[in-house]
Amino acid sequence: MTEVVHTPRVFSGIQPSGGLTLGNYLGAIKRFVSMQDSGVETIYCMVDMHAITVWQDPADLRRATRELCAGYIAAGLDPAKSTLFNQSQVSAHAELGWIFSCVARMGWLNRMTQFKDKAGKNRENASVGLFSYPALMAADILVYHATHVPVGEDQKQHIELTRDIAAKFNHDYGVDFFPITEPVIEGEATRVMSLRDGSKKMSKSDPSDKSRINMTDGADAIAQKIRKAKSDADGLPSDADGLKGRTEATNLVNIYAALADMSVDQVLADVGGKQFSEFKPMLADLAVAKLSPISTEMARLMQTPDEIDKILRSGADKARAIADPILAQTLDIVGMVR
Ligand code: AQP
């Protein structure tokens, strides 16, 4: 079989399951912007169908979807350059998601750590969608034949599953149709941790607001959360080796490096020897300087929700133009009469 070479195309998405966090920004959105600006075709989604795998109040979901779109644009995504839309407006995601849930194996999904984390002890009560989420995520990516997916570290396992689904589909049907997608996990903060517990990922849905920096937080809230962030009693080391085993210290230095577009070693060359009482105000000033323009622009965009809805509708039209023919070819391969 001759191998098909797929044109580079980037897809990624974020759930409107709450407000954006600094983790989403550094782990995902900042990368989305740099990939857009590198000139490759970019498609970025607000994955509202993933959000409802756990309960979402409808009014909150609508608002969070628009706010996420505002966050994308405020952080530098341009609807004229990137396709921006919400998942539920492009039904090909759900249709291919069903086909992939027939390709993925129970054993594969049983190994997904995100399901275990999110379902917790009460698995019997988790939605079926929360379990089968990675099959839909594979469809989100592969319905565009996307070759690269910028994500945070926590999504690596789901991208590996996407690769497994593509490979099994191609093998089972004897085709070379779906690309084997590459995850793009880059930067100094691919896994931003909770400010209150260095062993937990910073997350939109953490019950403690103090655990995260929200992209809508004002300067005072950001400064206060960083001042109260967990650190340790030692000073900052002058190289990365000195951070070994110090999860909270590592997290704060990583955040500084990612916000400043510096490497961890460059940061430590500047701040090595300082105490956290000196470093935290530096980090707070940097965070406010980088995040305030984004939150101000988000608030401005949120004043005209109709404009946001227009952007989403036109993005969905562009997305459908790519996804529908790929879905149609998939249905032909599978043997569905059309
Ligand atoms: N703490 C993080 N550090 C780095 N990257 C992160 N991402 C999320 N948290 C961090 C990246 O953001 C993208 C979107 O994630 P998502 O909204 O689809 O789901 P998630 O990973 O489950 O994010 P949250 O914030 O933890 O949401 P909830 O609380 O609703 O589950 C992904 O690329 C992710 O890697």
Q: Give me the side-by-side strand order of the main sheet.
A: 1-2-3
Helix content: 40-55%
Strand content: 5-15%
Query: Mean pLDDT, as a whole number?
Result: 96
Secondary-structure element pattern, one letter each: EHEHHEHHHHEHEHHHHH
Low-confidence stretches: none
Supply the number of helical segments.
Answer: 13
Distance between the termini: 26 Å
The molecules bound to the chains, other than polymers, are: adenosine-5'-tetraphosphate
Counted beta strands: 5
Radius of gyration: 21 Å
Secondary-structure content class: mainly alpha
**What is the overall shape?**
globular
List the helices and strands and how they pair.
Elements: E1 9-14, H1 22-37, E2 41-46, H2 48-51, H3 58-74, E3 82-86, H4 92-103, H5 106-110, H6 113-119, H7 128-142, E4 148-150, H8 156-173, E5 182-184, H9 219-228, H10 247-260, H11 264-271, H12 276-302, H13 305-334
Parallel strand pairs: 1-2, 2-3, 4-5
Helix pairs in contact: 3-12, 4-7, 4-13, 7-8, 9-12, 10-11, 10-12
The structure holds adenosine-5'-tetraphosphate (AQP).
Adenosine-5'-tetraphosphate binds at residues 14-15, 17-18, 21, 23-24, 27-28, 151-152, 154-155, 190-192, 201-205.
